[in-house]
Task: inverse folding
């Protein structure tokens, strides 16, 4: 038995021979009694090494033992020729070679583009560099998601924004980008862009985005260039978009594959993505998607990460990403994790009787400032009538008040201020700022501002719910708002996804603000359902 080792000492070049094997049929046994596992339909060979020192032939062999801490197997050269060590020559079909060539071309193109970073101080070079990176990343996202918009040609073809590609991927293409080390290159690209992007704070840092300034209030002359067609290109905005694209690309590299998700964790990329949370480039969505259906990765989430995501609600605003992350931690793949349920419940709702006074105050503060309160309001319609069976007492039935009083409206309330700003107290804008009518039948002792849930959540299905909630159709509502302070924006939704950048949901638009609050309320209800899942104590 001789193990092969790499050496840098010059010597006689060894000669390896591909020796055809005499496998005749699958499962047969040779003269030594060993079973031949290689199907006879495949072309089989053995790697023979004519050792110059010993003078005897050696064959490449494997006993199935793992090499070190990795999953690869240990190979060695043996003087006994075992048919079980036969190598199968597999012909790769032309379709698979085309996919491999696409990844090789994309990796080469991206690697060559990264060599231009040293000259990106020149405005023209920077515009060319980030334009090439944007096209390369968008093309790879279309390749992984099998988007129908991928590499379509023609002037009449409507190009869909890569940030709005449907979240789907095939395992075959994910394996290719991993084996060709394309994902490794994207993390190197991120480091280069961050290192050469000192002016990105105006476009991706939340401190600037939360100021709610419009594009006309920014300095458009900083880092801008006019293209040959007369279009003004903002270099910082283009750099910020490339950062969002490279982060969103990672979703398609692991989506739906447990093996790829674990690969991200083993390479340390999961912690790298966690470090990018809160910088306005969509890293939180990627991080939530990474741990949502993977109990193994959920167990690696620390208490500091949980507290940081809870603080994001106060620091970054009521994005539904934060409750969905807590939901994923409590019940990955639909299975409740009691320890995580207890951790989230103690941090958000009730710290426990044995908790320290500081933890109790913190949990009470989170409950008052970061959660939406729900209550029953007056009945909306007619009563459903008496019970059909006279032998049953109506008061003993579940939901007996619906029989006697009718369906009740649901009121919601949240911590707010007249002039809301992120990080300065309050969950979101007040009902007055959102132009939502308040409920007037609350007691004078209740200082909170209550509104009907329907006045907020109708934006989730505007075509169906706009008429009952606002008294006008969705088309009429859009026409009325387009002539006011909405800036003439169209709120039409394409495929359930808004036409604007999904990684930057903050807007002065009335509908966008309602949509943000409605999604947060829905995410909170789903989080509460998960907290009580399989835990009667939490109920």
Result:
């Amino acid at each position: 038995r001789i193990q092969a080792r790499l050496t840098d000492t010059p010597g006689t070049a060894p000669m390896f021979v591909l020796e055809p094997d005499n496998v005749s049929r699958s499962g047969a046994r040779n003269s030594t009694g060993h079973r031949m596992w290689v199907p006879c339909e495949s072309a089989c060979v053995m790697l023979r090494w004519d050792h110059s020192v010993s003078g005897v032939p050696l064959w490449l062999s494997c006993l199935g033992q793992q090499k070190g801490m990795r999953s690869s197997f240990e190979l060695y050269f043996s003087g006994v020729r075992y048919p079980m060590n036969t190598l199968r020559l597999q012909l790769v079909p032309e379709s698979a070679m085309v996919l491999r060539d696409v990844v090789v071309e994309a990796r080469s193109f991206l690697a060559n583009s990264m060599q231009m970073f040293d000259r990106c101080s020149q405005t023209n070079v920077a515009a060319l560099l980030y334009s090439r990176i944007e096209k390369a990343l968008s093309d790879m996202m279309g390749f992984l998601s099998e988007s129908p918009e991928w590499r379509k040609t023609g002037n009449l073809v409507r190009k869909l924004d890569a940030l709005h590609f449907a979240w789907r991927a095939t395992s075959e293409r994910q394996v290719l980008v991993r084996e060709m080390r394309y994902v490794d290159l994207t993390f190197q690209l991120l480091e280069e862009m961050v290192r050469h992007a000192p002016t990105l704070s105006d476009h991706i840092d939340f401190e600037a985005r939360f100021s709610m300034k419009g594009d006309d209030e920014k300095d458009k002359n900083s880092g801008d260039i006019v293209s040959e067609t007369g279009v003004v290109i903002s270099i910082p905005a283009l750099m910020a978009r490339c950062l969002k694209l490279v982060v969103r690309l990672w979703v398609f590299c692991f989506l739906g594959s447990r093996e790829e998700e674990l690969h991200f964790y083993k390479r340390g990329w999961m912690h790298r993505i966690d470090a990018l949370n809160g910088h306005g480039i969509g890293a939180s969505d990627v991080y939530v998607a990474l741990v949502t259906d993977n109990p193994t990765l959920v167990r690696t989430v620390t208490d500091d990460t949980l507290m940081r995501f809870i603080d994001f609600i106060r620091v970054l605003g009521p994005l539904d990403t934060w409750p969905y992350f807590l939901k994923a931690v409590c019940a990955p793949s639909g299975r409740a994790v009691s320890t995580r349920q207890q951790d989230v419940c103690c941090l958000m709702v009730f710290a426990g009787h044995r908790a320290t006074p500081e933890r109790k105050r913190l949990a009470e503060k989170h409950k008052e400032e970061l959660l939406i309160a729900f209550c029953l309001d007056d009945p909306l319609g007619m009563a459903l009538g008496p019970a059909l069976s006279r032998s049953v007492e109506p008061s003993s039935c579940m939901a007996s008040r619906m029989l006697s009083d009718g369906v009740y409206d649901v009121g919601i309330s949240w911590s707010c201020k007249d002039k809301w700003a992120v990080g300065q107290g309050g969950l979101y804008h007040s009902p007055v700022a959102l132009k939502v009518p308040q409920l007037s039948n609350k007691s004078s002792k209740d200082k909170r501002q209550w509104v009907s849930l329907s006045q907020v959540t109708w934006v989730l299905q505007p075509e169906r719910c706009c008429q009952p909630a606002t008294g006008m159709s969705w088309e009429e509502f859009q026409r009325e708002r387009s002539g006011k302070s909405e800036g003439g924006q169209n709120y039409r939704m394409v495929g359930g996804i808004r036409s604007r950048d999904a990684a930057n949901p903050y807007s002065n638009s009335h509908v966008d603000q309602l949509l943000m609050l409605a999604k947060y309320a829905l995410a909170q209800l789903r989080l509460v359902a998960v907290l009580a899942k399989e835990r009667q104590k939490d109920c």
DSSP finds 19 helices and twelve strands in the chain.
